[in-house]
Amino acid sequence: MANMTASSELPPLPEYTLEPLPPLLPWISDAYLSLALPVLAYWAMSLLFHVIDELDMFPQYRLHTPAEVLKRNHVSRWDVFRDVIIQQGIQTVVGLGLALTDPEPMQGKADYDVSVWAQRLRIAQRAIPGLLSLVGLDAVGIAKRVGQEQPMLSGALAGGIYPELTQTVLLAGQETLAPAFASWEINAAKAIYHLGIPAMQFVIAILIVDTWQYFLHRAMHMNKWLYTTFHSRHHRLYVPYAYGALYNHPFEGFLLDTCGAGIAYLLTGMTCRQSMWFFTMSTVKTVDDHCGYAFPWDPLQHVTSNNAGYHDVHHQSWGIKTNFSQPFFTFWDGILGTKWTGGDVSARYERARIAAQKKVDADNNSPAVTASSPAESKQSAQPYSNEATEATSTARAAQPALEPSIPAGKAKLQALGSRQQVLDDKQGGGKAVLAEESAEEAQAQQQLRRSPRKRSRSSGLKGFADRVGESLHGKGTGVLGVENSSR
Ligand SMILES: [Zn+2]
Ligand SMILES: [Zn+2]
């Protein structure tokens, strides 16, 4: 046996042999699975929400009534279905292209990589005596004193010196005594390699997707040509439902969703298996944001303040120029001042419900519903001042009729900008939408004067206004995604 190497020397890294990584499922490669899973998750989740819708299982949590889905959307369910399939087709073809350039996944290097991290930890320990001396502690002295009872602590304090930790390794066919890692070093290295790094990759990927989507989505709303040419299609859904999540112009779908996810995948250096999780997670979140329900028990709606209620405001004719953040967090809206600041929106939701119900009732010849209350907010109007000055007279004229519950200040400008956007979109929006809404508003007001708190049971909205009102005032869970504590 050769001489023991110096104690300051690093424990050697193990050798490794790479071999192909067998796929998770024997009948499909991981690359194909990572493309299939998001699509499967999209339709499985959409189907679940569709069943919930059709059976009207949770009327108390609906953001909109079935009557609104029927009367307020400017696109048929079939068109939505077809366009989503087209987008998913494009997404899959691009993914297949990327998969071709990806090297074949291999395994066998994990122990080696863990040891690399253990070596880094060992090197980092060299700084401990110096750092402790800055606060007047003699690390080496303490190390000697605790040496007997706490050999590992002593080793770390001494700057990563563990003379008693050795192992025999084969070096050039000869058994050689070499330094070894402490078990805590290996465990910490494993935690970094198997948990810390993947978690960081997910967080960074989420930030990349949020940033990519926020700025492109915002640009789509700020530039009239971009809006009318591409993004207005998504906004034909004034009442979003689950599988409308990816209802987009194919170019927009490719640019925002496919490219965003692809870039996050490439930049973070995720493995194919990590990307399965990430792509599926993003898809599920987007579907959930469009599901049309504010569920108190849906974890996805509470992990971040970006949820179905938050995004629903963005789909309304008065909130379309606000709440651009998607799909995970709302911080860009917060930082850049584009969050909806009009406070309580329950009266506006109520109006839309009443109006849609009236239309359905007119079809069926049966009675309608009513109710609600407003609130106040004053905010810096900065990002919206241009919007408001450039708004056309039509958008201005609609103001008094359309905004009984929007307080003055920034919220008024946000709503004005939003109305202008609706007007700019000749196909899916236009004057007709505003005219219709102002007529609805007048009717709703009339109805409210006649029977202020009466609600029909057939509307399935019992307690809705109260619950929404509560959450909007920050007492509840904040399901409607407007300015209160965290949003
Ligand atoms: Zn939008
Ligand atoms: Zn949307």
Automatic annotation (TrEMBL):
Keyword Transmembrane: yes
Assigned keywords, A-Z: Membrane, Transmembrane, Transmembrane helix
UniProt superkingdom: Eukaryota
GO molecular function: iron ion binding; oxidoreductase activity
Compositional bias ranges of the Polar residues kind: 363-386
One Pfam family linked to the record: FA_hydroxylase
Region listing for Disordered, in residue ranges: 357-403, 417-487
UniProt-annotated location(s): Membrane
Domain Fatty acid hydroxylase: 202-338
Biased composition (Basic and acidic residues): 464-473
Transmembrane portions of the chain: 31-52, 191-215
Major localisation: membrane
One GO CC term on file: membrane
InterPro entries: Fatty_acid_hydroxylase (IPR006694), Sterol_Desaturase_Related (IPR050307)
GO biological process, alphabetically ordered: lipid biosynthetic process
Low complexity composition-biased segments: 387-398
Name under which the protein is recorded: Fatty acid hydroxylase domain-containing protein
Phylogenetic placement of the source organism: Eukaryota, Fungi, Dikarya, Ascomycota, Pezizomycotina
